[in-house]
Design goal:
Length: about 525
Amino acid sequence: MAARAALSTTYARLLRHYRSRRTAPTFSLVHTPHPYARAFGLVVVVLFGAWLGLLIVGSVRTPVGPVDTSMTLRPSLHGGTKINVSPLGALELDSHTAPIRLDVDVDQLDPVRSQALVEHPERITGLQDEITRDVADGTTELAWRSCVAVVSGATALGLAVYRRPRRALAAGGLALALLGAAGVSAYATWNPKSVLEPRFSGLLSSAPSVVGNARSIVSEFDVYQKELARLVTNVTKLYDAASTLPTYQPDPGTMRVLHVSDIHLNPAAWEIVRSLVEQYRIDVIIDSGDTMDHGTAAENGFLDPISDLGAPYVWVRGNHDSQVTQRYLEGLRNVHVLDGGRAVTVAGLRVAGTGDPQFTPDRSVVPAGDDAERAAGARLAASLDRQARAGTPVDIAVAHNPVAAEQTDGEVPLVLAGHVHRRVNKLLPDGTRLKIEGSTGGGGLRALERDEPEKVHASVLYLDRDTRRLQAWDEITLGGLGLTTAEVSRHVPEESPPAGPTGTPSAPASRGPSPSRTP
């Protein structure tokens, strides 16, 4: 009995202790978020993860007719389609209303497919159907890739944030549902007539006044497709000519300077320059101006390849290059902008130059004419004289207009210019050699307006590495748009012995006649 009483007492004490612990207040440091806050956080994770997925793997490269394009889906408040045609600008279409936008970047013209169109003009008639199929194939592949991208991105970010597989899968599923809803919205609001009324930006903003509006193109498609065929032919031939340049064996004892000028916004010129730099082992590129056509900020993206041409780039402003152009170039890597007689030493060569004092695309200003050019040239000559007196003589002077360049006579051994779109080589009265380069852009995109295409010109100047004096030069001429000739001719200064630069190889056989252009 005593044992049973003791057991009952012990049980009663334990029961009281348990009840006291149940009724005692408890404190927790873990805060349970509100359901709305939890849902908002999940949406943020889903949207950010989906955006990262599209950014990393949500792009598709696909051919559309004769061009290579990149297609990408981007988040957007208004939807639509944006077609980027660098360096000319962009077209925006109200193709659909959805929280996603289709970006199409036209990367480059494919020479092989373009050549096929040139050799078989009958294919131009079916080009519209071919482009339609290419776009359909590209968007289908883009849709599948985008699904994988948004699901993978949202799932990966959900796993990183929540560290729970179930939450991560929920994020991926929600991302797929949102993308599907956006796709349904785009399909339901698709407007095929939007192509008739695009919005132009950049240089393309002037397209309606140049080529007529989109409705006239549709109504006169026969004329339009003939112009398209000619454009494809011209650009294809230019790329083909650039790829057949002759090759030289470099000589380390000679400096090689590539003189280019008047590119006038022709993107094919960069491929030509890059090819020449590689084949001739160019030390310095000198551009005597008119790289642009209108000098607007919209054209600036055209200049970006300069930093990767493989050689330092020395540049002076032409009458088609604005101060906006000049400031942009000053910020590019590997570019040396000369103005007001400024001099730089690049690869052991000292070069000074001045920009053109006139900007002729600005129709609100009356051109000052040759007097302004002579004044700019006189300032350049004065700068050359000061540097010679200071013991840092200039090897080459550069000005865009030959009128300005001629003012440096007697102050420098060699002065380079452009502007007139034809080659001129002459000795000035006081011993300075003036070399004027033709158009390295073949007159630019406006060359398409002419019946007789302008040829593409560039020159390789050979200078003695010790004296920095001109020993010889090669004039490189490519057939203009639509032509396939390539010509190289070797020249030596009249006052020098009839031999090329020390150790330099002789010029290869030229394609076609190679008359001297020295007047």
